[in-house]
Amino acid sequence: MTSLLDVRAVRVLLWALIRVATAPVVLVLVVVRALRPFIVLILLLVTLFPGTFGDQDAEISWLEGLVCVVVLALMLLPLRRVLASLAGWHLRLAGRLLGPGPGELALARAQEQLRIDQELHDSIGHMLSMIVVQAGAGAHVFDHDPAFARQALATIEQRGRAALGELDRIISGIQGHAPPPGGDDPAALTALIDGARQAGMAVTASIEATGLPPAIGRGVHRIVQEALTNAAKHAPGRPVTVEVGTGSGAVTVRVANAFDAPAFPGHGHGLASIRDRVSLLGGTVAIGPAGGRFTVRAVLPLES
């Protein structure tokens, strides 16, 4: 990152030097173009009336003077095109020197790829985890509780359709046509928890946070989503508690569930994405066993 900043500083300095060097030329051309009618008029007066602006030692014939005036006027006509060409050259040069360089473009592409990967993992991964949980529950009771199995299949269908819709939304977001989910809408978080319950998870929720800034709201949504996905993968069938509240200029998110220590490593892409997201929002996060429960606790400041 430091090398990129150094290269950019050199490019900005080079641009400033070029501007300083070309500014007088451009200024002269602009002034000449603005005064072009007066220059032609003065030359015409000097040619037609030699004594108008003082004595002249050399005598110039009327025809020669008129030819000189016409030639000079024709030479001044392309000034507009010259100035337009200079302006275009300045814009192209500014794009090269002040715009992103190859290193910055590569870094931006890598960051965008990371964002897309995280978005796919957080949203599609969560829905697929819910489908796996529901499929396992349906298969387990298929023989002695066919009604529940049918309900599980219906939920799997709904989750699958939702996953396809989420995939379409992500693709639209990449193309710049759709905003990410969550935001400051508490209904999105409620729908997320309801979806986990429909997938067979025993979720107890307490949501006491409204009017969150969009970025914070999306962060809360993703943290809860990933924590529920983690619980579904590593502690299926165990009750989960979700708490979201505000106080002291921050919003606190806590998701906890019972777990079997050997079966719950507490590592992986999902938990790493929570840490990355919280860090990006300037918050703090603690993930791990606490009081016999595996807990994800994040605190996000409401003001940066």
From TrEMBL:
Its EC number(s): 2.7.13.3
Catalyzed chemical reaction(s): ATP + protein L-histidine = ADP + protein N-phospho-L-histidine
Origin superkingdom: Bacteria
This protein's UniProt keywords: ATP-binding, Kinase, Membrane, Nucleotide-binding, Phosphoprotein, Transferase, Transmembrane, Transmembrane helix, Two-component regulatory system
Enzyme class: transferase
CDD domains: HATPase_UhpB-NarQ-NarX-like
Keyword Membrane assigned: yes
GO molecular function per UniProt: ATP binding; phosphorelay sensor kinase activity; protein dimerization activity
All copies of domain Histidine kinase/HSP90-like ATPase, residue ranges: 215-304
Membrane spanning residue stretches: 12-31, 38-54, 60-79
GO annotation, cellular component aspect: membrane
Protein name: histidine kinase
Organism annotation: Sphaerisporangium rufum
